[in-house]
Amino acid sequence: MGRASPHSVFLPCRACQPRSTGLLPSGTRHAEAQRRTIYSGSTVGYIIFFVFLAPPHDHLGSKRDASMSKNYYSEINLHITWHTKDSLPLLTLDVEALAHREVKQKIIGTPGVFVHEIGGTETHLHVAVSVPPTLVPSEFIGQLKGASAHEVNQQLKRRDKVLQWQAGYGVVSFAARQLEWVKAYIRNQREHHARGKVVDRLERITELESPGVEEEPRGTGLTPGTVDG
């Protein structure tokens, strides 16, 4: 008699179930197979058992990290400002609109960060945001500047770069009770500069005195009422 073709039958088997030994490496997919031979006359059959263990971190890990990342409470409000290259009036009305939009989109796309206000003049930009304690301000600001300049220049498609940012920035924290005042200050930037009524703490991008900004005594830079609206 000819030899019968082998066939596979999948059946539950206690012997091939994974044991909780803790010896299996985490994050690795394993396939365990056990063969048993059944003789019935001249017929040979193979019963193969497969046990697949999915990587434990595929879904559970991400959920665990997400839950841990929310295991805090914070109120971190930041006012951020930076200038165009050499403080040139590069932010014309059309360029400014694109720049503000791209900065806002980048902020919205950053987990845990909320944008409150964006404003500025032809030479610089102001932003008010709330951020999580895990955020690194220098990296975050660098991403905002790089992404916004790149996108603006890509969209305008001109031979020379239309928008370039100057190195450096200013970042100041403020209390929740000052949020509306800071938002109004950012919103009315052109008016404040036209009238010469600006707040030093919110205009600086270096430790040195900013051009055209008078030094103020320490402690008065963020007092609501220093500058109208």
Mean pLDDT: 75
**Strand arrangement across the biggest beta sheet:** 4-5-3-6
Tell me the total number of β-strands.
6
CATH superfamily of the largest domain: Transposase IS200-like
Strand content: 15-25%
In terms of per-residue confidence, which ranges show pLDDT below 50 for 5 or more consecutive residues? Answer: 4-13, 15-65, 214-220
CATH C-level class of the largest domain is Alpha Beta
Overall number of domains: 2
H/E series: EEHEHEEHEHHH
How many helices? The count is 6
Q: How does the helix and strand content classify structurally?
A: alpha+beta
At the fold tier of CATH, the topology name of the largest domain is: Alpha-Beta Plaits
The biggest beta sheet is recorded as: 4 strands, antiparallel
Radius of gyration: 31 Å
- Global outline: globular
Helix content: 25-40%
Question: Could you describe the 3D structure shown?
Answer:
The protein is α+β, with helices and mostly antiparallel strands and 229 residues long. The protein folds into 2 domains: 21-66, no CATH class; 76-203, Alpha-Beta Plaits, CATH 3.30.70.1290. It has 6 helices and 6 strands; from the N terminus they run ββαβαββαβααα. It has helices spanning 57-69, 93-108, 137-156, 179-187, 189-195, 200-203; strands at residues 30-40, 43-53, 76-83, 114-120, 124-131, 170-174. It has a 4-stranded antiparallel beta sheet with strand order 4-5-3-6, with helices on both faces. Strands 1-2 form a two-stranded antiparallel ribbon. Helix 2 crosses helix 3.
Summary, kept brief:
By secondary structure, the protein is an alpha+beta fold. It is built from six helices and six strands; from the N terminus they run ββαβαββαβααα. Strands 4-5-3-6 form a four-stranded antiparallel sheet, sandwiched between helices. Strands 1-2 form a two-stranded antiparallel ribbon.
